[in-house]
Structures are given as structure tokens and as C-alpha cells.
Design brief:
mainly alpha
């Protein structure tokens, strides 16, 4: 006859905790089977493709330049909606020359300043569109 020592509730909870946590997160945040409706889809600036530049800092600068120009265009044309639906990365690269602040090819932009400018235009855009 094999005799098994009783397991304390604390020990049992510690053993079962990883199983409980993995069961809760295994669906990647799954909460509902309902598909998002059109108005639930968030309008965000797309991430630049990696082949646009090998340095993430430069790609982040391109993304902020895209945001700046998209919001400027939407505000000037008085059009609400997602301003990123029509964009062209080659255009962003061409106009990026006016945003260059350094001769260092790895740090050509002041991304913090670009982000601040884009955030300001986004706030103006949202205020104009009543969001």
C-alpha cells in the first residue's frame, strides 16, 4: 500500500496557478466571438515596412511624418474620417527631407519633436471632427 501525504491548500493553489493563468491567456485576450463593427475599428497610422529603412528610429520618423501630413491634409480639406486610408510610403520618404535635422544617417529626424507635432495636429483634427 502506498501512502500519500495530504497536500495543503496553499501548495495546491501554487501548483494549479500556472494552469489557471495559461488557460486565461491562451486565447490572446479573447473575450467575445462578436466581430468588431465598422465604428469599432481604430484608425491608426500604419507602421512603416522594415524594408523602408534598416533603422527603427528612421522608420519611426517616417511614421510621424505620415501622421503630420495626413492630419494637415484632413484639416485643410475639412474631411473627417480616417486620414490614413490613402497613403504612399514613397511620398513620405520624398517629403521627409524637409524634416531632417541632422546629417547623421541613423538619426536624421528629431522623432520626439515630430511626435509632438503630430500629436498636436491629431488633437486639432479630433477637435475639428467632434471626437
Amino acid at each position: 500500500m502506498i501512502r500519500v501525504a495530504p497536500i495543503s491548500p496553499t501548495a495546491l493553489a501554487l501548483v494549479c496557478l500556472p494552469l489557471t493563468l495559461s488557460a486565461q491567456t491562451s486565447q490572446g485576450g479573447f473575450e467575445t466571438m462578436a466581430q468588431p463593427t465598422e465604428d469599432q475599428i481604430e484608425c491608426k497610422a500604419p507602421r512603416p515596412p522594415k524594408d523602408l529603412d534598416s533603422f527603427a528610429y528612421v522608420r519611426n520618423g517616417y511614421r510621424e511624418i505620415l501622421r503630420i501630413n495626413a492630419y494637415k491634409t484632413a484639416i485643410q480639406s475639412e474631411v473627417c474620417g480616417c486620414p490614413f486610408k490613402e497613403f504612399d510610403w514613397s511620398h513620405v520618404v520624398r517629403i521627409s527631407e524637409q524634416y531632417v535635422t541632422s546629417e547623421n544617417p541613423k538619426l536624421p529626424f528629431d522623432v520626439i519633436e515630430l511626435r509632438s507635432q503630430a500629436d498636436g495636429l491629431e488633437a486639432e483634427f479630433l477637435d475639428f471632427c467632434g471626437n
